[in-house]
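Entry 12.
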Amino acid sequence: VRTSLYSLQPQLAAQGVNFHFDLTDCDALPIDGEMLRRAIVNIVLNALDVLPSGGELHITTVMTSDRWELEIADNGPGWSEDALHRAAEPF
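Predicted 3D structure (tokens):
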């Protein structure tokens, strides 16, 4: 997660996006690190699309009772009603 964020830091800075992260260290997880990196990069790039004049991006990891969760939030305008209906469609 940190590596993905650091690789995007120049673009975040160029657009005036402040990013804050609160990442809990954990033992190795049985995940595909490259797929996680791609997902994070895609989500952050989507956030940058709606924050062309700056904004805030928050990334947090949370340990629940039985799993890790990654939360990514920005202060962009949110999703339109139409986009919400299509959110689960591929591409």
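Annotation: Residues 63 and 69 are 6 Å apart (CA to CA). The two ends are 23 Å apart (CA to CA).
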